[in-house]
Amino acid sequence: MTTLSRASLILDALAESRGRLTLSELATRTGLPRSSVHRTIQDLESELYVVRTSDRPGYTLGPGVLKFGLAGHLQLLSANRSKLVSLARETNENAELAIFNGREAVIVDQVASPERLIGVTKVGRSFSLHASCIGKALLASLPPVRAEELLPDALERFTDTTVVDRGDLLAELDVIRRVGIAVDIEEHDVGICAVATAMVGPTGALQAIAVVMPTRRFAAKGAAALWGLKDLNPSIDATAAKAHLDEKRRAGLG
User: Do the Cβ atoms of 93 and 113 come closer than 8 Å?
Assistant: First the structure.
């Protein structure tokens, strides 16, 4: 394994942990020998890619990674902004852009419709992967084994319609892989429904784009959201996706 590969494993582990990790914890999470972790950490620390925590033993991501994160973030936003604007205008609902943030999905951009949703979804908000359409769409874009690795052992329930049975969720991810869309029927927030699709975007990063709306408008406008997403992701199987959307709506809302 190259030095770059070891560094990537360590940085990914720190990003996913969202907190400090000791050398032993990093060795466990990455599968690397502790001696290799120690040598690589020293190199990363010298460039401020990682820093030691002051209150107790361990390391966190350092300021050296910011220059890459900020540049990549701006490229991601500029490459997708016009698509979000068009989608929001076409559907007259909120259009959102999301990416992985460790073991969660995070909203990185949003274009609000004239019928703005207040206080429901904000840029920077994170969502559990299993309880949001953006999370499920991103998971379904990964190899099944990797998707399972990102899921916690116990799936948290947010609402009455959150899918908390692991087998049911994995079966739904298989459907999402086939049809190209994920549906959220009040699974994360009561009163909110959404449809999302995931794809490799213009910057080469895996991303999800969603149309989000109040539940009261979903029955009438869910199909319009689907067609708007298909304009952005032609690989969506429209017929199968519509059937999946209708099935989820009936199961969740009756």
Answer: yes
- The answer to whether 106 touches 21, Cβ cutoff 8 Å, is no
Q: Parse the chain into domains and list their residue ranges.
A: 3-61, 68-253
User: In what helix (H) or strand (E) does residue 36 lie, and over which residues does it extend?
Assistant: helix 34-46
Q: CB-side exposure of 179: number of CA atoms within 13 Å?
A: 26
- How is domain 3-61 classified at the CATH fold level? Arc Repressor Mutant, subunit A (1.10.10)
Report if pTM > 0.90: no
Instruction: Taking each helix axis as running N to C, give the angle between helix 215-232 and helix 66-91, from 0 to 180 degrees, rounded to the nearest 10.
Output: 110
Instruction: Give tens-digit pLDDT for 66-111.
Output: 656 555 666 777 777 888 888 998 999 999 988 887 788 888 888 8
CATH architecture of 68-253: 2-Layer Sandwich (3.30)
Instruction: Specify whether the CB–CB gap between 228 and 238 falls below 8 A.
Output: no
Tokens of 60: 């966190």
